[in-house]
């Protein structure tokens, strides 16, 4: 990491009550796991860490998207941006959501295949992956990709997919810029 990781005990022993409460909220988000390298980077600014965890926590756990759709979007952002720390955390969640080995191999490709035959993703899942790639790499989404996505999802789901892609582009850029987890850079697999 390009900055030293924060020692939460130092924050808790030297900070005002608000910073201590923030560290505790971050711990509760991770429970039963310990604080992660991302948390230890974010806690350089407790108010930023607090807002981050609230926003990203909502994206992860309060939307109507199915687990496979959410994790496909997050994994494609990670691949496109070279955020291997993010991939390492979300690829197992994608697999657990029911994606096949072929589907996981497809998600890990730098470029999605043009032909959708035997890639391990449904047309609906592939639409999410392609939409994510366009949002992440070009920002502007071509009309045909949007129409394809919209053919599978409600307006609410389109907003949630778009918000998830946007949120995890934020996450990946933070991770890569600071090299959180020391696993970013060239593709490790």
Automatic annotation (TrEMBL):
InterPro entries: AhpD-like, CMD-like. Residues 46-106 form the Carboxymuconolactone decarboxylase-like domain. It holds the Pfam family CMD. It comes from the Eukaryota. Signal peptide: none annotated. SUPFAM superfamilies: AhpD-like. GO terms for molecular function: peroxiredoxin activity. This is Carboxymuconolactone decarboxylase-like domain-containing protein.
């Amino acid at each position: 990491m390009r900055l030293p990781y924060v020692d939460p005990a130092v924050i808790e022993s030297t900070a005002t009550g608000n910073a201590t409460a923030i560290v505790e909220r971050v711990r509760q988000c991770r429970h039963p796991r310990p604080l992660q390298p991302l948390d230890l980077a974010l806690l350089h600014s407790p108010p930023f860490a607090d807002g981050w965890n609230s926003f990203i926590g909502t994206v992860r756990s309060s939307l109507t998207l199915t687990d496979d759709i959410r994790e496909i979007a997050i994994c494609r952002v990670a691949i496109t941006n070279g955020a291997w720390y993010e991939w390492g955390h979300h690829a197992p969640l994608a697999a657990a959501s029911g994606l096949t080995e072929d589907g996981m191999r497809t998600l890990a490709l730098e470029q999605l295949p043009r032909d959708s035959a035997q890639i391990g993703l449904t047309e609906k899942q592939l639409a999410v992956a392609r939409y994510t790639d366009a949002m992440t790499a070009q920002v502007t989404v071509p009309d045909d990709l949007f129409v394809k996505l919209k053919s599978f999802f409600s307006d609410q789901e389109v907003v949630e997919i778009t918000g998830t892609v946007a949120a995890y582009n934020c996450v990946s850029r933070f991770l890569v810029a600071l090299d959180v987890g020391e696993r970013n850079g060239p593709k490790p697999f």
